[in-house]
Design brief:
The chain has 247 residues and is of the alpha+beta class. The chain has 10 helices and 4 strands; from the N terminus they run βααααββαβααααα.
């Protein structure tokens, strides 16, 4: 049992940001961030498929929703990231849209005092991969959004890869729902490192920032992925994905 499950004051979504009200069906950012990264990875690997299927507009819309959500939820000044909206028990008792429900939507966050490392790393992966998709599909027409995603990804990755690392279930009440298991947070750090490396080497989106050349994202990814638990790719385990991207 961790006495800091309700760290700080748990605010409602409305108190945090009006744009977050009714925005989240999943009770936690991590599965959403992973889903967005997987979607982006597929688009980067097989871009022609979305053109052929006529689904490029839907692809970009869905990735934008996640990007805006993560950008709204990240405060670089305090290094605070919204980790969960809602109560896990209440949310799993109903699959009705949040907008049609009346119960409180408490908001939990992660911060330097309790970093929720794998959640932060997943969020960095999502923002980085979304920026790469926007650059591939839209070029210069969405440069402003691309740069916002990239800067936030770099900031959140640095936060995740900081000196203090803890699993998110030590910081946010997700036990029995979306807590980390055998792989803890090393796989998320490895996976995120590969996406940050792509930003650093394959685009100029990091240029002009303090993250353009200094972090060694590739070495960080390789160090994190060594001898870690692996069975399949999923929201809780990114080892397979990290290894594919590294090797």
């Amino acid at each position: 049992m961790f006495v800091f499950f309700f760290f700080f004051k748990q605010k409602t979504a409305y108190e945090m940001l009006r744009s977050l009200v009714g925005s989240e069906m999943c009770i936690r950012d991590r599965p959403m961030a992973y889903s967005a990264t997987a979607l982006a990875w597929g688009a980067l690997s097989f871009p022609g498929g979305y053109d052929d299927a006529g689904t490029k507009r839907a692809l970009l819309y869905n990735l934008r929703v996640v990007a805006f959500y993560l950008l709204e939820g990240w405060d670089p000044a305090t290094q605070t990231l919204i980790a969960q909206i809602g109560d896990g028990v209440a949310d799993h008792q109903s699959w009705a849209p949040c907008k049609s429900r009346n119960e409180a939507r408490p908001v939990s966050t992660i911060s330097p005092s309790c970093p929720g490392t794998e959640l932060a790393a997943d969020s960095a992966s999502a923002l980085a991969s979304i920026a790469l998709v926007l650059k591939l599909f839209e070029g210069s027409s969405s440069t402003s959004l691309q740069k916002k995603c990239v800067l936030a990804a770099a900031q959140i990755y640095a936060f995740a890869n900081g000196p203090k690392k803890q699993t998110v279930n030590q910081c946010v009440p997700v036990t029995n729902f979306y807590e980390s298991y055998k792989s803890v947070f090393v796989d998320e750090l490895a996976f995120a490192g590969t996406w940050m490396h792509d930003l650093q080497t394959n685009t100029n989106l990091l240029s002009g920032t303090s993250y353009a050349t200094s972090p060694n994202y590739l070495n960080n990814a390789k160090a994190a992925v060594v001898n870690t638990y692996s069975y399949a790719m999923g929201w809780d385990n990114k080892v397979v994905g990290a290894k594919i991207r590294l090797y």
